[in-house]
Write a structure and sequence with these properties.
Blueprint: E1 2-11, E2 18-24, E3 30-34, H1 37-47, H2 57-67, E4 71-81, E5 84-93, E6 96-102, H3 104-114, E7 118-120, H4 122-134, H5 142-153, H6 157-160
Parallel strand pairs: 4-7
Antiparallel strand pairs: 1-2, 1-7, 2-3, 4-5, 5-6
Length: about 160
């Protein structure tokens, strides 16, 4: 597993879908995931530490876990099938570790609120790179791709925030 952090949220200009951008802690790997608008809003609220008068769904889930004396200790993106990523919540209680299937966007919304590690399997990272080069159109190649990688690596969270 590779430890990742949320680099930011962006908007795909073609599809108008939000993109969650993860980066590994050494900042060598950029890992984009297209997500839904509601999930982007929840992630944006967590990133911006927006206080709400009543618990939102992800806050409620963490409260339920707490009341059940269970802790979220990490979230892991474990596989990809037919273009869909699969994640698991890693939960710890008195009875031991449990894993719960979860959408990556929801798992990351929870991880940000609980301040726990976000991990992606090395196999998923490798497959993601293969898919982007094979199935998806490569927009920038060669010298220009290095230039764009440098430009993207200099963005901060504030530069890429998805505004809701």
């Amino acid at each position: 597993m590779v430890d990742m952090m949320v680099f930011g949220l962006a908007l795909d200009e073609d599809s108008q879908m939000p993109i969650l951008i993860l980066k590994d802690t050494s900042e060598d790997i950029i890992f984009p995931i297209w997500i839904g608008a509601m999930e982007a809003m929840s992630i944006s609220m967590a990133l911006n530490k927006v206080a709400v008068p009543r618990p939102m769904t992800h806050d409620l889930i963490l409260t339920i876990l707490e009341k059940m004396e269970t802790r979220l200790v990490a979230v892991e993106i474990i596989s990809i099938h037919e273009g869909t990523y699969y994640a698991e919540l890693v939960l710890q209680s008195e009875t031991g570790e449990r894993r719960v299937d979860c959408r990556p966007s929801d798992s990351i919304a929870l991880a940000l609120r609980a301040q726990v590690p976000i991990r992606v399997s090395e196999e998923v990272i490798a497959l993601n790179k293969t898919l982007q080069k094979g199935v998806f159109q490569e927009v920038v190649t060669g010298e220009d791709s290095d230039k764009w990688t440098d430009i993207l690596s200099k963005y901060s969270l504030d530069d890429l925030k998805y505004k809701m």
